[in-house]
């Protein structure tokens, strides 16, 4: 459960959702909507994680979740800043993670969301870099080094994540950086790379990169389907069209997350035309 009021705390949530095999639901920060409460009940959830502090998801929401029939446990994972919330998520799953860790910036949401299906499917924790220094805070670096990871995937260019990550901080650990000139091209690069890591192009997710709501919720479905997620926006469609063209013969389903205000009709039609060409 994450707030609709800000993306920061939720950036690392997909990895935990992958460990638990669960979806990510959004809530208003101050109160639990009837739709969200109904979905928790429909899912038959007995345990709910709240990602973020009380400024993001209030105590009232936590209390309301405890009143949903079937819910036995509500646990909050929160740090004073997003970097430390991500660390709390990692610590919650300790002992269950895979051998790959992911590092993304906490300054923007696009790169972390693009890699979220991989994090879900491969049980790869997502650590966040400091938005001011573009490097890893000491406590985060320590967690990665002690975590027994055989490699670290860095998502985003050097403007978002300093080259010090590979050159100094993570020296001795195999690192791979996935990046493009823009967040949309980075998204395409991540999706293409995912197909080399055992993920499938049979299903592809598409969401707007202009806001985070749809991609955050859709990332869990993509991860469960072992499918990549590609971000789009009006004027930024070459990444998704190129990806779809290259993998057209493998694609069976495309999920477009969000209404026409998020992913425009012209983009939707372009996706259909590319697949049917």
TrEMBL record:
A Pfam family recorded for this sequence: CW_binding_2
Gene3D superfamilies: 3.40.50.12090
Annotated coiled-coil segments of the chain: none
Transmembrane segments: none
Name of this protein: Cell wall-binding repeat-containing protein
Lineage summary: Bacteria, Bacillati, Actinomycetota, Coriobacteriia, Eggerthellales
């Amino acid at each position: 459960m994450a707030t609709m009021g800000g993306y920061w705390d939720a950036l690392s949530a997909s990895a935990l959702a992958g460990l638990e095999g669960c979806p990510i639901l959004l809530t208003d920060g101050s109160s639990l909507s009837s739709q969200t409460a109904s979905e928790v009940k429909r899912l038959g959830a007995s345990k709910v994680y709240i990602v973020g502090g009380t400024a993001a998801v209030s105590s009232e929401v936590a209390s309301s979740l405890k009143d949903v029939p079937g819910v036995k446990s509500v646990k909050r994972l929160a740090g004073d800043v997003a970097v430390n919330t991500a660390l709390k998520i990692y610590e919650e799953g300790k002992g269950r993670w895979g051998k790959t860790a992911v590092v993304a910036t906490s300054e923007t949401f696009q790169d972390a969301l693009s890699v979220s299906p991989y994090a879900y499917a491969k049980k790869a924790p997502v650590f966040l870099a400091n938005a001011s220094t573009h490097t890893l805070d000491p406590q985060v670096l320590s967690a990665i080094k002690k975590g027994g990871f055989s490699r670290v995937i860095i998502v985003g260019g050097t403007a978002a994540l300093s080259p010090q990550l590979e050159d100094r901080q993570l020296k001795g650990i195999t690192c791979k950086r996935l990046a493009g000139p823009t967040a949309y091209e980075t998204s395409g690069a991540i999706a293409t790379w995912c197909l080399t890591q055992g993920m499938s192009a049979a299903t592809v997710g598409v969401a707007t990169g202009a806001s985070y709501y749809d991609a955050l919720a859709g990332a869990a479905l993509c991860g469960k389907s072992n499918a990549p997620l590609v971000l789009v926006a009006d004027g930024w469609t070459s990444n998704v069209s190129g990806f779809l063209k290259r993998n057209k013969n493998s694609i069976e389903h495309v999920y477009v997350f969000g209404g026409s205000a998020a992913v425009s009709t012209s983009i939707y039609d372009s996706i259909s035309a590319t697949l049917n060409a």
